[in-house]
Amino acid sequence: MICPAADVPRGDCVNCRQEKWQFREVRTLGSYQDALREAVLKIKHVAYEPLAIALGQRLAECIQDRPLVEHPEVVAPVPMHWFKRLWRHTHTAQTLARAVALHLELPLASGLLVCRRPLARQASLTPPQRKLNVRGAFRPSRLIRLTGKRVLIVDDVMTTGATAQETARALVEGGAAAVFVATVARSSPDF
């Protein structure tokens, strides 16, 4: 797996050119295809948490190999609604974020963001539906001081960027100085 140079959404992605992103940069291990796609699908199940940890470590290495424009101060997973977490018995983004934080020697802030409501599966939605699905779904925790922090958000896959955009928007509105995104895989939507 490599860390592709074209992983920043503001680049040559035809689907991203018109967006005003709330996050500064993205790092990803590779395209959501072949072996990486299979790995991402597996890590959504509790039995494959060791694979998620290994992918999180590789993602941290990718960030070390291609440092972000500013050094993050804290790592946080894209939040999952409590009911979905209970039903799945795992939280993939949290497992990945824990591995990234440990490898980069940064604090993990698992509760930095809260998911306010259950969300429909993004994979089953069109790009406009994805934006609507996550709009207003996240808020910063009232228990963690966010003001002036540079935050690295971690997730498994980025397709349209709707989830990354909405989590970054919530963090920026909550006082974050900068938001960066790291994902295991990147997919271009074929809609």
Describe the overall structure:
- This protein is α/β, with parallel strands linked by helices.
- It has a single domain, classed as Rossmann fold (3-Layer(aba) Sandwich).
- The protein has 6 helices and 6 strands.
- The protein has helices spanning 34-42, 49-65, 82-88, 92-104, 127-134, 162-173; strands at 26-31, 74-77, 113-115, 138-140, 150-158, 178-186.
- The protein has a 4-stranded parallel β-sheet with strand order 1-6-5-2. A two-stranded antiparallel sheet has the order 3-4.
- Helix 2 crosses helix 4.
- The longest helix has 17 residues, at 49-65.
- The two termini are 26 Å apart.
User: Roughly how much helix do the residues carry, as a percent range?
Assistant: 25-40%
Strand order of the largest sheet: 1-6-5-2
Intertermini distance: 26 Å
- What do the pLDDT scores average to? 87
**What is the CATH third-level topology name?**
Rossmann fold
Q: What CATH architecture would you give?
A: 3-Layer(aba) Sandwich
Count of alpha and pi helical runs: 6
**Number of DSSP-assigned strands:** 6
Total number of domains: 1
**Low-confidence spans:** 1-12
